[in-house]
Design goal:
Residues 42-154 form the Phosphoribosyltransferase domain. Helix content is 24%, strand content 38%. The chain is α/β, with parallel strands linked by helices.
Length: 184
């Protein structure tokens, strides 16, 4: 019989979720928001974020290949805007792709984000919304910002379901909730 994992209970877009706590380094745990397969939460979060994004002017939603893909799709439907996924592996059909390195708190290892040739052409001169499920260290956002600069796109707004860690650092991000860090 395994020991029960501690959870952090949150209300997101009117839905209650118990987020399991996982240790990312000795003495530091984070609450893991995994929206994959949680259709109700994805839809409710997209609706709530779309309401908070009223007044922001952008043409395209951009996200990194991660758990935020279903959120980007749902938000795209809510706002009637296209979305682009920055990939984590290069494929030959991506042509002359741009790339930027990032380090995720959940993997702890460097990853490369790729913007393929087709999407690069679509972004040039466009205003974009950078979207993530959780903004924690900001590394993924920084990688996305770097790619947008290379693609000559303008970052108009950044959004996530949750921010995490230093709340002051994320004041400019449109988010539904802030998650604390759990220090032992």
């Amino acid at each position: 019989m395994s020991k029960s994992r501690p959870v952090y209970t949150v209300e997101l877009a009117g839905l209650k979720r118990d987020l399991p706590l996982f240790e990312v380094k000795p003495g530091l745990r984070i609450a893991i928001l995994n929206i994959l397969g949680d259709t109700a939460l994805v839809q409710a979060s997209a609706k709530a974020l779309s309401e908070r994004l009223v007044g922001y002017d952008f043409d395209v939603i951009v996200t990194a290949e991660s758990k935020s893909i279903p959120l980007a799709h749902a938000l795209s439907l809510e706002l009637d805007k296209p979305y682009i996924v920055l990939r984590k592996a290069y494929k030959f059909y991506m042509g002359e792709a741009l790339h930027s390195e990032t380090v995720s708190i959940t993997t702890g290892v460097p990853q490369t984000l790729y913007l393929d040739e087709k999407d690069r052409a679509m972004l040039k001169g466009k205003k974009v919304l950078l979207l993530d499920d959780v903004v924690s260290t900001g590394s993924t956002l920084e990688g996305m910002r770097n790619l947008m600069a290379q693609a000559e796109a303008i970052v108009a707004v950044e959004a996530a379901i949750c921010t995490e860690g230093d709340q002051e650092r994320w004041k400019g991000i449109v988010a539904l909730h802030h998650l604390p860090l759990f220090v032992d």
